[in-house]
Specification:
It is built from 10 helices and no strands. By secondary structure, it is mainly α. It folds into 2 domains: 54 residues, Homeodomain-like (Arc Repressor Mutant, subunit A, Orthogonal Bundle); 135 residues, Tetracycline Repressor, domain 2, CATH 1.10.357.10. The longest helix has 26 residues. It is elongated and about 55 Å long. The N and C termini lie far apart (47 Å). Keywords: DNA-binding, Transcription, Transcription regulation. It comes from Streptomyces xiangluensis. It holds the Pfam family TetR_C_41.
């Protein structure tokens, strides 16, 4: 391995350690109560090393948020990867998303803290990947002749906001598991307004 290769590995490992430490602290203590000194110490790095990668705490939080969102998106993709049937791909993906809403890291960072730390406009920009994933699933459904509604940015946005609100309901519930089950049934029923054939069942657990 070249010196450049080893250096790149070190840079990537350093960044990953900082993101892991920040994610854990933001989840447990919250953004306001977490200091950059704590993040650096938890990663066993200097504060200077942290500033080499992130300009400030908000920039660090934004990257943590993006990392969590990417992880959820990958979970959704993997959930639908085992089938070629568009409706099954959509329902399995949404089921995986609703399950992810039970994850404490996702609840605390993405649902509760992100709007206050970054503002709704920036949060929406960072949701573009997830919204694009939903749009692709809806278009795939239409191409297969399995959609009653014509795919459009409006349809994607409305359904995505519905799912975002469902995620908030799960995250804020006293019994998240029960809320997840109830939301799963509701989402299944609402998806029937889009489906153009014999819809499958969206699991609720």
């Amino acid at each position: 391995m070249t010196v450049k290769g080893r250096r790149q590995e070190y840079v990537e490992a350093t960044r990953a350690a900082l993101l892991d430490s920040a994610s854990e602290l933001f989840t447990e203590k919250g953004f306001a109560q977490t200091s950059l000194d704590e993040v650096a110490a938890a990663a066993r790095l200097t504060k200077g090393a942290l500033y080499h990668h992130f300009a400030n705490k908000q920039a660090l939080f934004e990257q943590v948020l993006a990392t969590v969102n990417d992880r959820i998106a990958q979970t959704v993709i993997e959930a639908g990867a085992g089938t070629d049937e568009p409706w099954a791909r959509l329902t399995r993906g949404l089921d995986a998303f609703l399950d992810a809403c039970l994850d404490r890291e996702y609840q605390r960072i993405c649902l509760r803290q992100a709007p206050a730390v970054l503002g709704w406009e920036r949060c929406r920009e960072l949701e573009a990947g997830m919204m694009g994933l939903l749009d692709a699933m809806l278009r795939e459904l239409a191409v297969a002749g399995r959609s009653r509604l014509q795919p459009s940015p409006l349809l994607t946005r409305v359904l995505f906001r519905m799912l975002s609100e469902a995620a908030m309901v799960i995250g804020e519930a006293e019994d998240p598991g029960a809320a997840r089950a109830e939301v799963g049934v509701l989402v299944e029923e609402l998806l029937h307004s889009v489906h153009g054939g014999n819809a499958g069942v969206l699991p609720s657990s």
